Amino acid sequence: IAAGKDPLEGQRHCCSIAQLHEHYSLGYPDLDELQKNPQPLIFDIEVLRSAQGSALTLGCWQVEAPGSYQQDPWAMTDEEKLQAVPLIHKEGNELYRQGKVQEAAAKYYDAIACLKNLQMKEQPGSPDWIELDQKITPLLLNYCQCKLQCEEYYEVLDHCSSILNKYEDNVKAYFKRGKAHAAVWNVAEAQADFAKVLALDPSLRPVVSKELRSLETRLREKDAEDKIRFKGIFSQ
Fold first, then answer.
1. What 3-state DSSP class applies to 145?
2. In what order do the strands lie in the sheet with 48-49?
3. What is d(CA 78, CA 116) in angstroms, rounded to the nearest whole number?
4. CA-based radius of gyration for the chain
5. More confident call, 75 vs 58
6. Exposure check for the chain: N or C terminus, fewer CB within 10 A?
7. Which windows of the sequence hold TPR repeats (predicted)?
8. Using alpha carbons only, what angle is made at residue 105 by residues 100 and 111, rounded to the nearest 5 degrees?
9. CA 86, CA 135: separation in Å to the nearest integer?
10. 63 phi and psi, to 5 degrees?
């Protein structure tokens, strides 16, 4: 550009098949030769044991112990997805107990993705669709709990609202949404959600009362900060 030239001049990006069709070449002599004379490829990979002797690594590659490798959800069959969900759920719970909230959220997300993929193949509202949805809901609530701790409140609001649109009596969804509303200063909405929690499960009154007291304390602190911040503005 500084030299007054068109930066795109002479450049054309395309897939290898289009390149081969138009220019009769893949751009590399060895690949052109392989295209003419196809043959099996043999890759020699040198694996180096780490200094601790516990992991086998080479660059970004790692050799897993037999049976320890877990496929990504997109690479699994339907049966493998169903079998993997309880294991992934358990791994997420263990990570959460260890305080590894982000890692736990990723596990819950993977389990949800497996079930969502299966659910897409079912008729919405059918028995199989509902059964999968009921398996997704507790995982989604666990995911929301992680997001609460990560202070990603609007994501919690979205997910909990989607649950409550289908299951109006889900106490955990009301409670988590109430906490998210309180965190973003939606006071009336938080109070309404906590009231719904009490209506559905009166035994949770001590927990709800604690959340409401916390909200009231934060409101008083905010009012005091606002008075200090705006003191004298309107008298000038």
1. helix
2. 48-49, 56-58, 61-63
3. 11
4. 28
5. 75
6. C
7. 171-204
8. 130
9. 10
10. -90, 115
Domains within the chain, CATH numbers bracketed: 74-150 (1.25.40.10)
- Chain segment 87-99, per-residue pLDDT in tens: 999 999 999 999 9
Other beta carbons within 10 angstroms of residue 214's beta carbon come to 12
Q: Which amino acid is at 175?
A: F
Q: What share of the chain is helix, strand, coil (3-state, %, to 5)?
A: 65, 5, 35
3-state secondary structure at position 225: helix
Q: pTM value?
A: 0.70
Give me the chain's average pLDDT, please: 86
**Cβ atoms 142, 88 nearer than 8 A:** no
pLDDT at 58: 47
* Burial of 216 (C-beta count, 10 Å sphere; 0-12/13-18/19+): exposed
Q: Poorest-confidence range of 16-20, 98-102, 107-111, 123-127? A: 16-20
Tell me the C-alpha distance between 209 and 215, whole Å.
Answer: 10
User: For residues 154 and 159, what is the distance between their CA atoms, to the nearest angstrom?
Assistant: 9
Which residue has 């309880």 as its token pair? 86
Dist. CA 130–CA 122, nearest whole Å: 9
